[in-house]
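Dear support,

I submitted the protein below through the web form. The confirmation email said the job was done, but the results page showed an empty box. After a refresh the structure appeared. I'm attaching both so you can tell me whether what I see now is the final result or a partial one.
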Amino acid sequence: MPLPGLRSILLSNAVKYTPPGGRIWLNVCREQNKAVIRVRDSGLGIRAEMLHRIFDLFVQVESGWDRTHGGMGVGLTLVRTLVRMHKGKVWAGSDGPGKGSEFIVELPLTEERPAAPPAEPAAAPPAAGAKVLIVEDNADSRTMLQSLLALDGHQVLTAEDGWQGLEIIEREHPDVALVDIGLPGLDGYEVARRVRARFGPDHVRLVALTGYGRAEDYAAVQQAGFDWHLVKPIDLEELKSVLTAPRPAGP
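What the results page shows now:
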């Protein structure tokens, strides 16, 4: 159960949006068959119309505190993703700007205990995670992907543009490269073409990250040398499948 991590993210968010002299309350308890985390603060609050969107990545809350503090970042989006992975619920409440906020997480509990490992033979160690490179110019998207992949045990490298991505591929030889198409300067298509021209088709699995899923978009990424095409916002289960799937057969 990821209680410590969720609690830490929610507390960090409360600290970020509570001015000096404010107050923050934390309560963690068991209610029937659920673990419940409540983090409440006396901070800057949230407008009612934004409560249902506050967990969305890149949401822009049009108020003074959002611009002053640089937006919500990826913390709350990561909270929602982790909670959903564990079949829980999360929601936010606020009486409005200047009246503080409350975030509540509910996670199901189980009475089942894990089976004791056999004494002989010793259990084999878990397989090592893949070495994954994320080439993404948007800092929030890059950080969120990095956090989620690291939680799954992968070694994660990051690059902010296509040139840096190429350099890391040549130096670090990652197993998988997640490459945003809309990169400044050297776009994702050109990154893929150069990787394939330099190293051939089997050096690294290339996954295109795009905002479009039309037939022509799939054709373009395939022609550039990508193995897969994921449409943003990326589905976590689909990404996991791509990381473990056999390489697609060529045309």
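Response: this is the final, complete result; the empty box was a page-load delay. The chain is about 35% helix and 20% strand.
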